[in-house]
Amino acid sequence: MATLATGTPAAVFGPWAAGVFAVTLGAALVEGVVRTRRGGYDWKAFAATLGDAVVRRGVDATGVSLVAPLFAFAYRERIATLSLSTAAAIAILFVASEFAYYVYHRIAHRTRWFWASHAVHHTPNELTLAAAMRLGWTGKFTGAALFFAPLVWLGFPPAAVGATLAFNLLYQFWLHAPWMPRLGPLEWVLNTPTHHKVHHAANPEYLDCNYGGVLIVFDRLFGTFVDLRDDVPPRYGLVEPVRTYNPLALGVHGWRTMAREVRTVRGWRRIGAWFAPPGTRAVEPVAYAVRPQS
Predict the structure, then answer these.
(1) What is the DSSP letter of 236?
(2) CA pair distance 165, 281, nearest whole angstrom
(3) What is the pTM of this model?
């Protein structure tokens, strides 16, 4: 606990990162093999996700990020020093980080600037465990850490905040298994694979909802929860599907789309256009042929 409270995120997770990646990759591979035998699997998409991960690791190796300096500044100017020596303090940090993630994730879908990097995660046209690992490599430069820096400013140690967010993302790995059944009463509190199917769907009925990480309670409180409908099977991917398997092209797809949309705005309004909701072209209802999830 001392390392978690006072160390850096890298010091806390460095020894575990390779092991976690190996386990998640192994699970994704097993799912791919099983689904191949049961009807088909997009291995090119799997390779694209691996390529994205390699590029992201390369960017991480440069050490260039807005997270560390923002967290360092926030902790230096903190208004208190909060100890994580009690279960209550850890629970408060967990709930606070969940709320911060909800706010970030909602804004990431509704603001062009943050969507440009987050959209990479939504480019897979199949929902798989491998899709959970496609996170893009430009997010560290968008300033997303601003949503979590207040937790550090309040007095939570930077490494503890980083740890909580890391566990949040690790929890979300299994949410990308569309073959998981509903989980009964847990669906009221937790984010589950059923809820995440809806989040990844591009159907008009399902756009921009279910933003929670571990919890779904904030979606229910703030009116962004949408349940899966039996009569509307999800079509995964972006509204305008991305067909490339090039990880470099996937990483910049959202930025190119944003630049194309903003370019049509003239004068001072262009500044605001960078932070306006991402544009979606009006589309007529389409009868999508959805591959059954095995």
Answers:
(1) B
(2) 34
(3) 0.88
* CB-CB contact of 212 with 219 (8 Å): yes
Residue 82's alpha-carbon distances to 23, 77, 98, 209, in angstroms, are 33, 13, 18, 33
Distance CA 207, CA 226 (A): 9
Q: Where are the alpha helices (DSSP H) in 138-279?
A: 149-154, 158-171, 193-200, 217-222, 247-262, 269-273
DSSP 172: G
- Contact yes or no for 224/208 (Cβ under 8 A): yes
Of 111-125, 207-221, 247-261, 270-284, least confident by mean pLDDT is 270-284
CB 126 within 8 A of CB 45: yes
Contacts of residue 27, defined as CB under 8 A and 6 or more positions apart, other chains included, come to: 129, 173
| Chain-centre distance for alpha carbon 287 | 28
DSSP run (H or E) holding 26: helix 9-38
Using CA atoms, how far apart are residues 141 and 261, in angstroms rounded to an integer?
A: 20
Query: Residue 45 corresponds to which tokens in the numbers above?
Result: 């998409």
Q: What angle do CA 71, 75, 79 make, to 5 degrees?
A: 135
Question: Which tokens is 30 given?
Answer: 């097993």
The alpha carbon torsion through 133, 136, 137, 138 (nearest 10 deg) reads -150
pLDDT tens digits, 237-274: 999 999 999 999 999 999 999 998 888 888 777 788 88
Candidates 193, 201, 191; CA nearest to 233 is 201
Q: Which residues contact 230 (CB under 8 A, 6 or more apart)?
A: none
